[in-house]
Design goal:
The chain has about 45 residues and is mostly helical. The chain has one domain. It has two helices and no strands. Helix 1 packs antiparallel against helix 2.
């Protein structure tokens, strides 16, 4: 759980950095990875 938390924080940091540099393609790639991690971590109930 701790490793996932660190990985999520690192992805969020990298997304912000690439966004600041204007690299939209890399932002989209990292956002996809982040969404997959978040989906695994918190299964939706419903």
């Amino acid at each position: 759980m701790k490793a996932n938390s660190n990985e999520i924080m690192m992805l969020q940091y990298r997304i912000k950095r690439y966004h600041a540099m204007g690299n939209g393609a890399m932002c989209q790639l990292l956002n996809g990875k982040l969404q997959k991690l978040l989906a695994k971590q918190i299964p939706l109930i419903g």
